[in-house]
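Fold these two proteins, one after the other.
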Amino acid sequence: MHTTLKTLFIILLCIFQFINLFAQDRIEENGYLKNPAFTQYGIVFTDNYSSAIYLNKDSKIEELVSSPGCGYYYSVSWDKNRVGFKLIDENGNQIPALVDLSSKEVVKLHEPVKQAGQVSFTKDGHYAFTIGEQLIVSDGNTYQLEYYSNIAPISPDGNYVAYNDNNDQIWLLNLNTKEKTMISDSELGYFYPKWSVDSQKLLYSGFTGIIKVYDIKNNTTYVLDEGHNPSWSDDSEFVIYYKKEIEELKLINSDLYVSKFDGSTTTRLTNSPDIFEMDPQFSRYGERIIFHNYDKREIISAKISGEKKSLSEREVLYKCSEKFKIKYYKLKSVPGKMTIENVPYLHQVYDTPNWFWGYYACAPTTAAMVLAYYNILPKWETTCSSPYSHKSYWGRYICEKYHYREYYYNLGSSPGGHATGYGGYGYMWNGNHRPSNHMDDYYRNHGMTSSNQESTSWQKATNEINAGRPYTMCVWLTSSGHLILGKGIVEGQHTLIFNDPYGNKNTPGYPSYDGNGAMYDWPGYNHGNVNLATAGSGVPWCIATQYSVLAEVDTLVDDFNLENGFYLHTQSPASMAYWFDKNEGFNEHFWWTYTTSSDTIDTCYATWTPNLPEEGNYEVYAYIPFIENATSSAKYKISHAEGESEIVIDQSDNADSWVNLGIYIFEEGNNNRVKLGDADGIGGSKIVFDAIKWLDRGGLGLDFYADDTSGRAPLTVRFTEQAQYTPSTCSWFWDFGDGCTSTERNPMHVYHDEGIYTVSLTIFYEITNYTETKIDYINVSEPLPGDFDLVYPENGSIVSTLTPLFYWISSSKNESDSNLDDIISQIKNNEISGINKY
């Protein structure tokens, strides 16, 4: 019985964790209602992806229009008979449009263009929208704004238009005087201006969630509160909005608030921990409000008291009981892109170790991508099982312990009650730590210059990306906030390209394994992608980072040159858990580990690979920083042109100095290396790994010469090799240019034919070879004319004569032959008797 109850308890606990884990993901995937508004014909609203606009009347739902992002920033005319929105076709072309609620007819207001704006209305029935930098009003007037602003609402009286510039500041244009005034303070980025009914006040939101009202008559700006999706009351005196409560990236509550336009009073209208009230709006006459309740997927109407202090008479106008049919769109045509190359992608769930529950790990995963981009930490391999078996090289830093810059990342935090995560996750979530106050420090701890920006702007974000610096952004892609990494810009749009560690919200399923290159639209803009502020207001905070990357390696390789000449081995049985470091030594940093008792097999090791400008003799030096209990038997293995040499150095006796490892011949390029491992045959000591340098001690000096470089054929030439380095293991190969070759060191060769010949000598070493070539080196002219040749038997050379004479002499059978040179000499001197002449 006890066993059965225990098993049942474990099953229920697992089910509870599963429900807790996927609750918010299921809400997003199943869809929920957003931005409900009163009209003469029922309630209009959109879905959480803004993929369509719907009309609810008598509990019946009718789809008015569907198009990528058409539900973003839609507007309702003041007479409540029309809905203004933006159509985006499959090629990304934009069309301002409206739908007549009486006929359900969609009216396109302009031909398709690349930059069109949202539609707004005046009280007298006119509408306005932007095309590029121009505002077009249906009364026939056009106005130049200087910037493309997607949201540029015309005031109800038709006298003003509000719009954004490229730095996310709010401007007013007086349509009568053409005077332009910036009304925001430049301290934050702002978006989504909304006019009061009396046209005298402008409501707008900051990227941090702050709500402000500008009073035109008094030229005064009021700060109300922080919240989401504010809207006006019908009497222009109050602003209603909602606020969220978030703990550990989990939305735990949201409630409705109302403030006087000048911020003098603020009232909490709801206080219901089990109900998530969102997106409130006043009715036409201000007697009732309308809102939705997120996960319950209901549209609710409630009566608001005259003094705007309380709600009563709640009524469910519509309840969605089935899964919402979210529409996903893929645009066929995307403009040009500017993307920072080689930013590694990591998924917080699928690229972390299998044991780790990564659903809350967007911040440390984003940080790990930045560290990987700058090659600050070595690859640390793990095998991940989902969504298929694959290798991840930086996922372990997200949740496992490691040392860097003398800091031990051993703080732990348990995500959602699951196994404790360390590394970046533990650092950002331990105790009172949060990414908002510790992610910045995490970057700085890894040697970066880091700036936490409580507010950003389009200009700031694009400046960082254009400078080649990935941009960390906290955004409202989800109801509880999300961290992503900006890495690119779509040309001609207010759209950024990201590495989203949870996937791509433009595609079905979230999380998904397609977050590399996800495109999201900037707050206040709509190009058919999911908006960064889709579940809140603006961009709460960002972090700009810089890192001084060392120059490309040549003859000096430092331990900072990871993935660029320096390699630190962390694969099993090694691990980053076995590596330590100190902020000392060459360039103020070195790695160290403990030695093992093995004499031959290294567990942890490092290699240094230079990129030498040319082959030659190089003297190799290793920098050895001071450390207590240093090994006396550090075995440096130098790979060079002849093979590998091992030099044993006593690190304890050479602290804080460059130590000579010898002179060797090295190839040009990056085919040479030095390796140092932890196997010293003793064990228990410390062994250090810092910088290695190669000093050029001159080239190989490979050369050769010929004793005669010109003459008549047949020409006999002796070649002599002159190489600076000729070990016993090397070999020679001569190419004389006439089809003949030799493998002798100093050969003799006869050129029989007239011509000019190029000669080359190649010396082969054990793992490389070097060649010296002399162009047109041997010049052989034509032979002297004659009817025959006399040949020297000794070397095959030919004696030519114009008037040949034959001499012969008899000799006894047993008499030895004389040297031909001696015979000729005797003949010339008439010293031989018994000669017959012909």
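Now the second one:
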Amino acid sequence: MSPQSHVCRWGTALFVALVPTLGFADSTYKVTATRTQDVITIDGKGDEPAWQTAPEIGGWYLTRINYGKPAPDDTKVRILYDKDNLYFLFHCLDSKPERITGYTVQNEGFLHQEDNITIILDTYLDHRNAYYFWTNPLGVRTDGRIVDDGEAFSTNWRGEWETKSTIVADGWISEVRIPFANFQFEKKDDITFGMLLDREQSRNQEWSNWTPDGMNSAKVSRYPHLAGLKDINPRSIFSITPYVATTVALKYNDDRGAFRPNVGADARIDPAPWVSLKLTANPDFSDAEADQGFLLLDTEQPLLPERRQFFLESEHLFIAPINIFTSRRIALRPHDRVWGGLQLTGKVGGMNFAMMDVQHRDFTGKDAGGRDIYENVNSGVLRLQQDIGKRSMISLVALNRSGRGGIFGDSDFQTLGVDGNFHLFEEFFIQAQALRSWSPLGNVDADAYHVGLHRFDTLSEFWLQFEDIGKNYANPLGWTPVVDKQGYNSHLFLNPFPKWRFLPRLDVTWDTLWRRNHEHQRTRWRQRLNVQPYLHHDFALYIDGVYDDNEGFKNRVGTFGFTLFPHDWQNYTLTAIGGRFLGGELRGLNGAVNFKVGPHIVARFSGFYTRNFGVPTNSDLFGKSGDGYSFSGYAQLRYHFSPDLYARLTLQKGDVYELADYNSVKGTFLDAMVGWHYRQWSDIFLVYTDQPFAGSQERRILSKISFNY
């Protein structure tokens, strides 16, 4: 047995044997919610008399640059509730209101580095997991889950809530309504949530929150409490969401016909406050809901965000170092089919559980006559996660995938494993995982191990991870792109704020990866250093160096450039690249312009040009770039009538080799979409797309309407 195997296996065994001995006290901050019978209109004004009956929360503390000090620009918050909703009124004071910024107009957008506020609710009061609701001065809604006391985030969860914001003379005001129907909890006389209120100011890149000392906003275990919620209604016991979808193929190269209608439904039943049963019948692929840069017809490699409601309820339970379950691996391609499925999920005491069974049909290839061959598949998943102490946990997972038919015949895959997190100190924890698979590939060398040490806070992050994955380990329901490996990877991120006039901020990232196969042959050695010195809050240099000895190619690539206005939807970037890549010499230029025009229009343009020399015949670049050049371009224009109603036009042309910030696809794409979220959990989409599919160009019109009861 190799030393690497000893480290992973004994580390895993040590972790399982550990019992947490450290606890962390709850926050001393607490507020009692004020009940109202009045109607609260979410208009960003907060002028209803009922708001004055709620106590004002103030006294926020900084959490980033001047950590732990009182915020110079305080935030005042009032909280109301009725039987169905929780209401928040934020008054974000700002001594320079003319510099308040809001760029993002798209729901589910990334809001950092513009003014924003966040409401985070631990509705189970388990001090581990929470829902976050994030908005900016334009009233955009972004939400998700914080998992395992900030160790991970799940961004696919989508809640239903309402917000409006207004810029005023002394700052900006935001009103928020969060229905209790988003959550499942026991209906009782008096309920308490964990709650954190958070704010970011763009002009000084400072963060603040409502805690005694400005602690890290992801630390669910230390959240203040929102108490006094009486006689409130959790989500309804039953709901159903049917949908109707159509595809009209204007140009196609298969035998599935020009017109393809589709119907299906998702349903949910909550027989008790601690358990939920979810059912699905013929769910569609939900690629329109993902709202990525463009709708992808061929998803052999890209993994889309999960938007199928059936799979989202327990998604956060499957976050683990070695990916054990990715629901997008079930019916991976749009022409695969989920016939139906059921899922039982919930929490009893300190035990989270999820049990899922899905029947689906997957495309496996074509026979000698060119006919499509499918296999009928049953996929089952069991996940049990037991809380230990206040912040640690241990989990069990069991997976089974049984396929019948298909071009390769019948197949059965099983995986069994255990994993967990153990918090030693406030910001330091250990992760460990052990997995075993049984498959047609063989049952010898079919195990996988992981041990990781992690530390993170607001301004820094470090991890050191060891992995040993056998060459016959196989889990088609998870995502393990590389097997037959032993190795380690490390990551260090530092985000100091020197407060110098010409260097207010510095971002430094250093990544190392080393691995070998089980014959002790080194297969990869990668080092990357990235430095971004901010010469001004709105201007940063970009310096990046990579050495990557990978599969015989010794890549050495350097990048230098700058970013002006480093925001997601408002920036200008220009970088030059040079070095050796895939066996040849490389020179290139990459430019990107993202900007917002008025309150409704945003645009994104990117271009990437490379010149290659001396490319060998065994390189992926040979025959496409060779001793020549390649070019790719990307453009997107969005018009948002409101955060819930938008139109999008996207164009991409060219080949991309993971050097530029594009979707990792090749060819010419033209994509137009209109999306409307017209009521809770209900949407309408209309899409026109012209793109490569199965080796040739296709043109299609797709539509979908869903309605939640």
